């Protein structure tokens, strides 16, 4: 056991090294990649909770514990950060996975019965929160077209490919929002199964043209 005499015998620095209760770990240098990810995650949370116009760079910086200037250094303007947030969310490319002939059934089953994935839901919330801002909607429309609608329309192919792609996407998004609002459509299991059949036919019809 240490006593008062120990302090007299050992210099203070040596005493601290000898006694683990006095150990001090110097803070590690901030990792740039981890900081960028933390800022992006904080921005996702902010934009999914609040409207675009109500979110400030200082708000996001405060959530991470950094200076607002550092947020700008990593991402540029607020518009650039918002675009990066949208890019980090699910882009819907998984809709094009799997056999084309099973598209309607597969997607309808996922929308109606499977738990919503956090990334998809957060991206949807961010888009809904941005409706009141002309600047945010411009970014949403641009990134949505580049990241999803153009590839999806190319995958759909044929006459009126973009029209059919937009129709299918609007059906999927509308059903997803309805599910979240109602907490599961407010239907019985049997009714949900019949809705799945009808939604599958609607989606497959849009894809097949």
Q: How would you describe the overall organization of this protein?
A:
The protein has 209 residues and is mainly α. It has helices at residues 4-9, 12-18, 32-49, 57-64, 68-75, 78-88, 103-113, 118-129, 134-156, 161-182, 189-208. Helix 9 (134-156) packs across helix 10 (161-182).
SS-based class? mainly alpha
End-to-end distance, in Å? 83 Å
What composes the largest sheet?
Answer: none
- Tell me the helix content: 55-70%
Assembly type of the chains comes to single chain
Number of strands: 0
Morphology:
elongated
Overall average pLDDT: 85
Give unreliable regions as ranges. 1-29
- H/E series: HHHHHHHHHHH
Strand content: under 5%
Rg: 26 Å
Contiguous helical run count = 11
Question: Helices, strands, pairings?
Answer:
Elements: H1 4-9, H2 12-18, H3 32-49, H4 57-64, H5 68-75, H6 78-88, H7 103-113, H8 118-129, H9 134-156, H10 161-182, H11 189-208
Please outline what is shown here.
The chain is mainly alpha-helical and about 210 residues long.
List the main descriptive attributes of the protein structure presented here:
single chain, 209 residues, mainly alpha, 70% helix, 0% strand, disordered N terminus
